[in-house]
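Field reference: sequence -> structure
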Amino acid sequence: MPEEQSKAIRKMADRIVKGYEAVHQKQYQEAKELLEPLLPLFHQEEKPNVTLLAYVSISQIATKDIDSFLQTYEELKKYDPESAKEAALVKRVDEMFEELMGAVEADAPNKKDE
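Structure field:
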C-alpha cells in the first residue's frame, strides 16, 4: 500500500509541475485544467500554498474565468509570500488584478452624467 500511495503522490506532483510549465509556456487552459482540481488537496488555511494559488490565478485570468480568478485572488491575498519567488508571483498576480480593475473602470459608464 505505501508504494501505491507514493505513486499517487508522485503522479499529483508531476501534474503540478506540468501545470506550472504550462503557465510558463502560455498554455493557460491546460494549466487551469491541471492545477484547479489540486487546490483543495495542496492548499489549506493551516498549510497555505501561495505558489499554487498564484499559478491557478494566472491560468484563470488568462482564460477569462474572471469569477474564479477573483475568488482565488481573494484567497491568495490572505497569505504572505515566504520567498522572493513567491513574492514575485504574487506581484505578477497583483498587476493582473490591477489591470483587470482598470479595464472594468474604463468600461463602466460615466456615473457623474446621470
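Note: The radius of gyration is 16 Å.
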